[in-house]
Amino acid sequence: MTLYQPEPVEISTRMRPGEWTEASLEELLTTYRAKILAMGATAYEVVSDVERDDDGSVKVAVSWAKPAAADESVAESVGEPGPVQ
Fold first, then answer.
1. For a Cys-Cys bond, which of 2, 20, 64, 78 suits 9, CB 3.0-4.6 Å?
2. CB 27 within 8 A of CB 42
3. pLDDT tens readout for residues 44-67
4. What are the strands of the beta sheet with 9-15, ordered from one edge?
5. What is the pLDDT of residues 2-24, one digit of tens each?
6. Cβ-based neighbours of 68, under 8 Å, separated by 6 or more
7. Is the Cβ–Cβ distance between 60 and 22 less than 8 Å?
């Protein structure tokens, strides 16, 4: 039996101007998504956020938005509706 921890998981980084390109940014997002999926997230639980600043820097975050209860995640992953909130 595994202890369920509903806290969100996030992998993030900030890059300064000149440290990234559109191609490297997409590759980074793909890598972060793969790491979150490898931790057990389902595709619909993975949330990506890219914030671009006026100075050319960028903040990248990929999160696993875990449901409050473990059984919600299982029900939704097999297509069964979870509780309505």
1. 64
2. no
3. 999 999 999 999 999 999 999 887
4. 9-15, 58-64, 46-52
5. 666 667 799 999 999 999 999 99
6. 6
7. no
Task: With beta carbons less than 8 A apart as the criterion, state whether 31 and 5 touch.
Answer: no
**Structure token pair of residue 84:** 């309505």
In angstroms, the first-to-last Cα distance of the chain is 28
Mapped to the 3 state alphabet, what secondary structure does the chain carry?
Answer: CCCCCCCCEEEEEEECCCCCCHHHHHHHHHHHHHHHHHCCCCHHHEEEEEEECCCCCEEEEEEECCCCCHHHHHHHHCCCCCCCC
Tokens 């619909």 — which residue?
A: 44
